[in-house]
From TrEMBL:
<feature type="compositionally biased region" description="Gly residues">
    <location>
        <begin position="603"/>
        <end position="615"/>
    </location>
</feature>
<dbReference type="GO" id="GO:1901195">
    <property type="term" value="P:positive regulation of formation of translation preinitiation complex"/>
</dbReference>
<feature type="region of interest" description="Disordered">
    <location>
        <begin position="1"/>
        <end position="62"/>
    </location>
</feature>
<keyword id="KW-0396">Initiation factor</keyword>
<keyword id="KW-0547">Nucleotide-binding</keyword>
<dbReference type="GO" id="GO:0003724">
    <property type="term" value="F:RNA helicase activity"/>
</dbReference>
<keyword id="KW-0694">RNA-binding</keyword>
<dbReference type="GO" id="GO:0010494">
    <property type="term" value="C:cytoplasmic stress granule"/>
</dbReference>
<dbReference type="GO" id="GO:0031370">
    <property type="term" value="F:eukaryotic initiation factor 4G binding"/>
</dbReference>
<feature type="domain" description="Helicase ATP-binding">
    <location>
        <begin position="214"/>
        <end position="403"/>
    </location>
</feature>
<dbReference type="GO" id="GO:0002151">
    <property type="term" value="F:G-quadruplex RNA binding"/>
</dbReference>
<dbReference type="InterPro" id="IPR011545">
    <property type="entry name" value="DEAD/DEAH_box_helicase_dom"/>
</dbReference>
<feature type="compositionally biased region" description="Gly residues">
    <location>
        <begin position="580"/>
        <end position="589"/>
    </location>
</feature>
<dbReference type="GO" id="GO:0005524">
    <property type="term" value="F:ATP binding"/>
</dbReference>
<keyword id="KW-0378">Hydrolase</keyword>
<feature type="short sequence motif" description="Q motif">
    <location>
        <begin position="183"/>
        <end position="211"/>
    </location>
</feature>
<dbReference type="GO" id="GO:0005634">
    <property type="term" value="C:nucleus"/>
</dbReference>
Length: 649
């Protein structure tokens, strides 16, 4: 600290940077900061570095000083400023004294708490199922406004100019006797109240995945559905299970249910998803479409007060949205029975396996009182379906229909993808260039580690950008607050680890930046899918350098599939790395990670049989390691620990 202070004092605006410690930015005689990637001749064969905005200067005047993160925690924690010695030496920018105020944004979380407003379930607006008939509850205008907003409310996603283009995406449905898709919401088999709620949500037409899923579930079939990010998969499972629930009513309680002191809930539908944010979001959607119905949705996830969750469950729980770890906890406490489950949904199942949830999932599905695969309907949804998850399907699904909207694991053409060659030490300055280039709506920046998320967020704050961060080490409250400030635009930049990669539906995310590329190409697909949703357009930029050559080939394939420009350096590096790895084995075509086949049951596919994919994906000592299907599970990760945050993200 003393050393830094003395360095700061000894520097003037015209000083050369001291190098090393501040990321090697340079300051020209006029006091203008020259970012390192400009002041150096880039010779890595990339023509793209620094090409973002035609050379905007930094509007923050002077500031280099990045690279000395680690200061300034406590952003978005409501007003106090721990600026410390902040960033700053080597610049004339004057932010080094804690002068920027990180409070401000980060309040007004309101009272959604763990369960969202529970007013949905006031007696009056709750529906009933009497004598085989669904009787809708009374209307509640205030609640309607809360659930559905108004057409011009930016908090709610509206469809974009390319919404109709979803109809042009080729759909493949394989399996026995695939039912005909519906084309509109007002045709059977959708139940009348659900159609009313869909209208309140201002959905005018079903997306392809919804067109198929509704009749498939109505026909009593199981489903594995793979559709691009942002194309309405949540409705794809909520619509059919709610509609069928409204038509069929609740399952009768088992005879011994709630005998004596037992206070168990007997949900009819169970939706499992990997992260707290995702289950909360699914729950919010379920509240909309369950409005005025007999179905009462509940949500449970780790990291939040279990007593509050139990109280909510006690008030009724017909559709339960849960992370696997917390659900196991509740099962152990004897507060939930799965004996009445008719519909089981696994959303983002591949991520749940990545996170080490497989033991919990197997316990929930096979080791408790859930009806067997023959006596329930099981649905699996994701935008990517690696082969191992298709294998899991063999145990959980029966005679299912495999639905793929577009190619499995492909990205939406609504997202314009840029891959820029950026060396690690240049990333910050290139990022500043992008962020300085104008109003771009919300910007989501992905990094690989929690530490990096903190560092980068601190750095951006030090540069006067209103940023927040989300990662697995932040408390649930902090994570919710971060999401809220981001959603509302009070902090229009969010630095995130993979916790925010899947499923999150945040309107107005215009740009996703992969500051660090993931090592798994499926993660890339999900990350960039936070933009370009519901027919809206978006931009995704990835910083690529030789350290990312492991994904070069797959990235190139993805760009081609989505009709995106493939930079020359990517082709070169991808050729080099394919050569180094002995041909196409590690590529998307032959990878065991992402299924190239549409329906695994059809066998073979471009990559050959499952066991010869090469380089089985491995994370957390997960299910990797083996060739061959037989030993691909059986991961480490210790039973019961997956709700904790042992991971790096
Ligand atoms: N039929 C529809 N009409 C209009 N908007 C829709 C329709 N279905 C879904 N949406 C909207 O599209 C957005 C994306 O939907 P959703 O979150 O279900 O996508 P997803 O396919 O699950 O994406 P991801 O793969 O990222 O999880 C949401 O804001 C949702 O409200």
């Amino acid at each position: 600290m003393a050393e830094i202070t003395s360095k700061m004092q000894s520097l003037s605006v015209n000083d050369k940077p001291s190098g090393g410690e501040n990321g090697s930015g340079a300051i020209n005689p006029g006091g203008k900061y020259i970012p390192p990637h400009r002041s150096r001749n880039v010779d890595s064969g990339d023509s793209s570095a620094g090409s973002f905005n035609g050379g905007n200067g930094y509007r923050r005047g002077g500031g280099s000083g990045y690279g000395n993160g680690g200061f300034n925690r406590g952003y978005d924690n409501g007003g106090f400023n721990r600026g410390g010695y902040g960033g700053g030496y080597g610049n004339g920018g004057g932010y080094g004294n804690g002068g920027y105020n990180r409070g401000g944004y980060g309040r007004d979380r309101g009272d959604r708490g763990a369960f969202g407003g529970s007013s949905t379930h006031k007696r009056g607006n709750r529906g009933r199922f009497v004598d085989g008939k669904h009787i809708a509850g009374a209307k509640d205008e205030r609640l309607e406004l809360e659930l559905f907003g108004t057409a011009d409310d930016s908090k709610f996603q509206s469809t974009g100019i390319n919404f109709d283009n979803y109809d042009d995406i080729p759909v493949e449905a394989s399996g026995n006797e695939v039912p005909e898709p519906i084309n509109t919401f007002d045709t059977p088999p959708l139940e009348a109240l659900l159609v009313e709620n869909i209208t309140l949500a201002r959905y005018t037409r079903p997306t392809p995945v919804q067109k198929y899923s509704v009749p498939i579930v109505a026909a009593g079939r199981d489903l594995m559905a793979c559709a691009q990010t942002g194309s309405g998969k949540t409705g794809g499972f909520l619509f059919p299970i709610l509609s069928q629930s409204y038509i069929n009513g609740p399952a009768p309680l088992p005879e011994r249910a709630n005998a004596g002191y037992s206070r168990k809930a007997y949900p009819t539908s169970l939706i499992l998803a990997p992260t707290r944010e995702l289950v909360s979001q699914i729950f919010d959607e379920a509240r909309k479409f369950a409005y005025r119905s007999w179905v009462r949705p509940c949500v449970v996830y780790g990291g939040a007060d279990i007593t509050t969750q139990l109280k909510q469950i006690d008030q009724g729980c017909d559709l339960l949205v849960a992370t696997p770890g917390r659900l196991v906890d509740l099962l152990e406490r004897g507060r939930i029975s799965l004996a009445n489950i008719r519909y089981l949904v696994l959303d983002e199942a591949d991520r749940m396996l990545d996170m080490g949830f497989e033991p919990q999932i197997r316990r929930i599905v096979e080791g408790e009182d859930m009806p067997s695969v023959e006596d329930r309907q099981t649905l699996m949804f994701s935008a990517t379906f690696p082969r191992d998850i298709q294998m899991l399907a063999r145990d959980f699904l029966k005679d299912y229909i495999f639905l793929s909207v577009g190619r499995v694991g492909s990205t939406s053409e609504n997202i314009t993808q840029h891959i820029e060659y950026v060396e690690d030490e240049d990333k910050k300055s290139v990022l500043l260039d992008i962020l300085s280039s104008g109003d771009q709506g919300l910007i989501l920046i992905f990094v690989e580690t929690k530490r990096m998320a903190d560092n980068l967020c601190d750095f951006l704050l030090s540069q006067d950008f209103a940023a927040t961060s989300i990662h697995g080490d932040r408390t649930q409250r902090e994570r919710e607050r971060a999401l809220d400030t981001f959603r509302s635009g009070r902090a229009p930049i969010m630095v995130a680890t993979a916790v925010a990669a899947r499923g999150l539906d945040i309107p107005n995310v215009k740009h996703v930046i992969n500051y660090d590329l993931p090592t798994d190409i499926d993660d890339y697909v999900h990350r960039i899918g936070r933009t370009g949703r519901a027919g809206n357009v978006g931009v995704a930029t990835a910083f690529f350098n030789r350290g990312n050559r492991g994904v070069a080939r797959e990235l190139q394939d993805i760009l081609k599939e989505a009709n995106q420009e493939v930079p020359a350096f990517l082709e070169t590096i991808s050729r080099e790395s394919s050569f180094g790895r002995g041909g196409r084995g590690g590529s998307r075509g032959g990878s065991s990670r992402t299924a190239n086949t549409r329906d695994f049951r059809r066998g073979g596919g471009a990559g050959g049989g499952y066991s010869n994919g090469g380089g089985h994906y491995d994370r957390n000592g997960g299910y990797g390691g083996g060739s061959g299907y037989g030993n691909s599970y059986g991961n480490g990760g210790g039973y019961g620990n997956a709700d904790s945050n042992n991971s790096w993200w």
